[in-house]
Design a protein that fits this description.
The chain has 342 residues and is α/β, with parallel strands linked by helices. The chain has five helices and 17 strands. The strands form four sheets. The protein has an eleven-stranded mixed beta sheet, with helices on one face. It has a two-stranded parallel sheet with strand order 6-8.
Length: 342
């Protein structure tokens, strides 16, 4: 009897000691979010810690602030409806805050938004329905871990002018991207892991109101198909930057609708087609630091020389080729003399 009573009270004591741990696990609350609000006019900006996104949305609606910025916080993922129906805020940013997911519908009916900035987070995918049909002109998703973008995730944004996807983990293009984004001016895809630019990959850029700039520097690109930029109708690419890749061959046709081409720091041995026409697409520096064969090197140098552009790099490489050819000729002559000597 006494033993049973002692064991019962001991169990209750242990249980009471454990209950706070259970409470912590089951009633865990997210930390507050410190958000900074920037005014429309005539009001000072301020920062405030709020319990969740709903509180942030409510405060922005009641005060009419134009910009909300969250930086260096530990934030929850943006679920459907988290920031829906915003009617006054024009710019919204979450940076350096470990954000890993934005669900479709997070910003639905938030038609005042013009800029969304999610730089330096941990996003891994862009899903259809997250940004579609918003009126944003700028979308910044750079410096994340994005590996996958759904087919229509970057489509149906009629006001989109600038999109930043640099410094991510993308490996493949999808020619379904950018449908109905006819105002696109800037497409930043630098510092990813693309290896091939396939045919017709930018076909959805036809019908653009502007000449878009496409930045693909610092990838792993080895091949650019000759018809990669076909299907853009009469649209020209303003800037096509492909420097610091591993491209081995360049065809003149690949850049027939390009205003400025940058091919420096690749593995190009020769430009196939009209070298002079290709050389017109950029300054001489845009073509330096490639292992051109001597014949092609001479043609490129000549093309730039005739346009009044001098390059110390091209001159040095030309001299190496010339001196190397002289040495080869001298060696051949020497071999001939030895062969014919008595």
């Amino acid at each position: 009897m006494y033993i049973a009573t002692f064991l019962w009270f001991s169990f209750l004591k242990i249980s009471s000691n454990l209950s706070p741990i259970w409470d912590v696990n089951y009633n865990k609350k997210s930390p507050p979010i410190k958000a900074c609000f920037y005014p429309q006019t005539g009001v000072s900006n301020f920062c405030q810690s709020l319990p969740n996104y709903s509180a942030i949305k409510n405060l922005s609606t009641s005060t009419g602030y134009k910009k909300i910025e969250i930086r260096h916080q530990i934030v929850e993922n943006l679920e459907r409806g988290s920031l829906s129906g915003i009617l006054t805020v024009k710019e919204f940013a979450i940076q350096h805050s470990n954000l890993s997911d934005i669900q479709p519908g997070a910003f639905e009916r938030s038609l005042s938004l013009l800029l969304l900035d999610f730089r330096h987070n941990k996003l891994e995918a862009v899903k259809t329905g997250t940004f579609n049909d918003l009126l944003i002109s700028t979308l910044n998703l750079s410096h994340n871990r994005i590996k996958f973008i759904e087919d229509d995730a970057l489509s149906y944004m009629s006001n989109l002018e600038e999109i930043y996807l640099a410094h991510n983990l993308l490996t493949k293009f999808n020619n379904a991207w950018f449908h109905k984004t006819q105002r696109l001016r800037e497409l930043h895809l630098e510092n990813n892991f693309f290896t091939v630019i396939p045919n017709d990959v930018f076909r959805n850029l036809r019908g653009q109101l502007f000449n878009p700039n496409i930045y693909l520097s610092f990838n792993k690109i080895t091949v650019v198909h000759s018809l990669a930029f076909r299907g853009m109708d009469n649209i020209r690419i303003g800037k096509l930057f492909l420097d610091n890749n591993f491209i081995k061959v360049w065809n003149e046709n690949s850049s027939s609708n390009v205003n400025e081409l940058k091919l420096s720091f690749n593995n190009v041995t020769c430009i196939h087609g009209d070298v002079r026409e290709t050389a017109k697409l950029g300054s001489v520096e845009n073509f330096e630091h490639n292992p051109y064969n001597c014949t092609c090197l001479k043609d490129i140098k000549s093309a730039f020389d005739s346009s009044g552009q001098q390059s110390a790099w091209f001159r040095e490489q030309y001299l190496i080729c010339r001196d190397g050819n002289k040495m080869k000729k001298a060696r051949r002559d020497s071999d001939v003399e030895i062969f014919h000597s008595p």
